[in-house]
Each structure stands twice: as C-alpha cells, then as structure tokens.
C-alpha cells in the first residue's frame, strides 16, 4: 500500500514563541520584520493558523502586542491564535486584530479551561474561536487532572456544549486540545488515554464537527536526537503518534509546519516501539522508552 505524503490535518504554526531561542532573539530585539518573515515562512510551509505567544513580555508591553498583531496581519492572511493567559493582553490582541485581513475569520483564544471561565468575559466584545484544554476539569470547586480517556472526553463534551449553549459558539468553532504527554515520564498510560479519548470525542454525536488537536512539542522531550534505527527520533515519534491519532479523529496539530508530518509504515521501527509502549505502564513503560534509542 502506498502511504500519502502527508496527514489530512491543519497546522497551527507554533514558532512565534520565546520558547524557541531564535524567536526569543527576535522578540528581545523588537525585530518585527524578522517576526514577519517567520510568519510568512510558516504559512508558506502549510500553516492554516499562527499561534502568537510572548511569555511575560505581553503583560509588560501592551503596545508591542498591538504592533506585533498588526505587523503579522500585514504579511499573512491566516487567522491568528492568541496564546496569552492574561485578560489585558488578550483584550489588546483582539482589539488590534482585523478579521477582514484573514478572510473574515475570527481569531482563536488559546486556551480555555474548565477552571478559567473568566476568559469568556471577552466574548461579548470579541467574537472568537476557542481552544479548550481537556486535560483538566473542576470537581466540587477543585481543579483535577484528567487521567483517563472517558474523563478527557467528558470534559471535552461538557465544555463544548456549555460554549454552544451559553455563548452560541458553533461546535466547529471549538478545538479540543487533548494534551499530548512526554513519553519519558508517562508511566500511567497517559498517551494511550489521549489516543483513546480522540476516538471517543470524534464518535460523540452531541459535538459532531468539533476539532481535535494536540501540541506535539513535548512528546519526545529529553530523549536523544537519534532513534536506534538511526532516524530522527523526535520527528519519528511525532509521526508515530499522528499515525494512530489521525485515523482516530485528530484533525489539527499545534506544531512546526516544516516538520514533515507524514504517516509511517507499520514496519517503521519507532512506530512499532511506540505501539508496544502504549501497552505498558510503570517500569515496563520506562523500559519501552529506552528501546526508542537503544536496542
């Protein structure tokens, strides 16, 4: 069987973030032209949206937030995704954003959680799409981590239906972030829970049309650069995850557009190890992780 060259997914470009050293240098230098070039590169590589994250800079420098949003929209026509936890920064970003420069598409709020509902105060003044973190829920007033597929799926459903019911946000304007976990610390089957949750969410008729996404940056955290078969381990591991997640129903990725996301053949070494890892827990999971880079 011939595999397709890429996955049928949309990419939210993640590179405008101080988490990348090269981008931090641009931000520290107020290099708007450099940030514009980075935005253009991501869109040319296939990004359908661009995430904008400034770390602590946003709250300290609201005029820069305005200048950056306007500079980005001057060179790209995709919607922006505002990744700020502080309401004043979000208000500034939304005020600067012009949907007309993105084909009429609203910006995206990244991200809403069950315990941070105050962010929805912004919706009256700024219509936006929403990324929902389904990794946490509120139980009796206390935030708790979701550790099983049903917990993740239940949170996705309850938050999405609340957004639809109370604010009129269409289900297709909601993205569920299922929170992809680093394999090196996953001894409790959290990767397996996430992949199972993707399938449960996609098969839930009450939220039909919802987008399911994940940020892949952390999955290969602290692992060596090379897999035991000589391949690029982090890239192969991201593709192994997507090889399972996309058929389950994932349709969006927060990632680097030029990463080369593509399905892996079943005999791929990293995919085979990842499938075995998904069946393990405790010390057996740690042994499976070692097999990614050591035969």
Write the topology of this structure.
Blueprint (H helix, E strand, L loop, with lengths): L9 E7 L4 H8 L3 H13 L2 E6 L4 H4 L1 H12 L6 E3 L4 H10 L11 E5 L16 E5 L2 E4 L2 E4 L3 H19 L6 E4 L12 H13 L8 E5 L17 H16 L3 E4 L13 H10 L3 H10 L4
Parallel strand pairs: 1-2, 1-10, 2-3, 3-4, 4-5, 5-8, 8-9, 9-10
Antiparallel strand pairs: 6-7
3D structure, described in words:
The protein has 295 residues and is of the alpha/beta class. It has one domain: Dihydropteroate synthase-like (TIM Barrel), CATH 3.20.20. The protein contains ten helices and ten strands. Strand 6 (136-139) and strand 7 form a beta hairpin.
Short structural description:
The protein is built from 10 helices and 10 strands. With 295 residues, it is an alpha/beta fold.
């Amino acid at each position: 069987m011939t595999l397709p060259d890429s996955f049928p997914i949309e990419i939210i470009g993640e590179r405008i973030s101080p988490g990348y050293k090269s981008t931090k240098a641009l931000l520290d230098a107020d290099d708007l032209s450099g940030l514009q070039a980075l935005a253009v590169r991501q869109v040319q590589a296939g990004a359908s949206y661009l995430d904008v994250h400034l770390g602590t800079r946003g709250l300290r420098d609201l005029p820069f937030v305005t200048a950056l949003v306007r500079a980005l929209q001057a060179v790209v026509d995709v919607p922006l995704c505002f990744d700020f936890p502080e309401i004043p920064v979000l208000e500034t970003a939304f005020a600067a954003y012009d949907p007309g420069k993105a084909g009429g598409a609203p910006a995206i709020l990244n991200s809403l959680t069950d315990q941070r509902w105050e962010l929805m105060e912004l919706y009256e003044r700024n219509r936006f799409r929403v990324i929902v973190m389904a990794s946490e829920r509120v139980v009796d007033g206390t935030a708790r981590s979701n550790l099983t597929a049903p917990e993740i799926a239940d949170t996705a459903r309850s938050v999405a239906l609340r957004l639809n019911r109370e604010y009129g946000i269409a289900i297709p304007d909601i993205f569920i972030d299922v929170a992809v976990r680093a394999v090196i610390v996953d001894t409790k089957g959290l990767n397996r829970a996430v992949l199972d949750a993707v399938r449960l969410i996609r098969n839930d008729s009450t939220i039909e049309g919802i987008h399911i996404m994940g940020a892949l940056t952390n999955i290969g955290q602290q692992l060596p650069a090379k897999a035991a078969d000589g391949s690029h381990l982090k890239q192969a591991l991201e593709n192994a995850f997507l090889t399972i997640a996309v058929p389950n129903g994932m349709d969006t990725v927060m990632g680097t557009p030029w990463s080369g996301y593509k399905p892996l053949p079943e005999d791929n070494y990293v995919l085979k190890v990842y499938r075995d890892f998904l069946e393990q827990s405790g010390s057996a999971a740690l042994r499976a992780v070692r097999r990614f880079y050591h035969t």
